[in-house]
Design brief:
16 helices; single chain; Rhopdopsin 7-helix transmembrane proteins; mainly alpha; Arc Repressor Mutant, subunit A; 2 domains
Amino acid sequence: MSFNISLESLVDLIGFIIGTSLGIGVLIYHWKKKSFFFLGLFILTYSLDVSSSFIYDIFGENNATIAFSLLNFSWLLFPLFYVYVQHISTLKAEDIKIPLIIGSIGLLSSFIVNILIVEQIDISHVLEIIIVNLEVLLSCWIAYKTLSWIKKQKKVVYNHFSDATDKELNWSRTYVLLGLIFTLVGYLSFITDTEMGWFFYIFNTINVVLLIWISIRSVFQFQIEKTVEKKKELKHPIEKNTTKQNDVIEIIKSHINKTKCYKTHNLTITDISQLSNIHTKTISESINSILASNFNSFINQFRINEAKKMLQNSDFSNLSIEGIGQEVGFRSKSTFYRSFKKETGITPKEFLAQNSSKF
């Protein structure tokens, strides 16, 4: 079979092959995990969405390729990603059926309308406008819900984990915002009936790069620990209405200083709860209310204070700054530097320079 393939189709073909391979791989190796199951479906759907440009180049124009080109898979992209984000986050997934059902109905409806357009039925153009507007509204609605979920996730992460690395899902927010921009630019082109020309090819290439990036990035996103509390979490929980929040702060400070548990980089509020026999919600509310802070910043204060002592002590001069950061509980150098500067106003290196005369 001989065929001529354009540069645009070649770019889409590369993205399709990479995306499809990753999507199928995710489904095969992680098919029992809901988060990865929806991720695999999302990647495959995204791959199919960019595949229409090279279908004709490779297989020619026939009934099968025409029918496939009429399928608008973008209806399912935002819903599938929204469901994936819910399952990968610390929060309990909810409200997942409605977006998927609406997206599936939209996919079917747009397919029918596209068939009517091909058959040149007069009412088809009116239906097309309605369908396109509904798709944009769905995309904006799901994008808003996804961003709201990520914002809520971030708040929970900082109130539950001492190490927020790879738990904030910032990359997923980036994808949603870029995806929304793509949707709105496409919509603008549709309503103005504008030929995008060379800009379309650049935009299409960026879309393929985005597909590859989001596929690889999401594959390496680990399942974040759920924050749903276990029934056997506490032996003697302290109720909010019987314990002053100031007392709670003093109790947990005492336990933390005694055990130096802050040196464990994956320390969670549940660990402190079990250590002090105080309910996680009581601890979180006390830190939020009394200290106007969150659990992450609260634990990092202990780490920074310990790091300052080590930086001023010649006994630890054999350790690098990064080594000291790891010693006090920080998993990465960037997190250590960022937290240290937030707490002291200077970097660990600057702090060391100011105290170098003591060595």
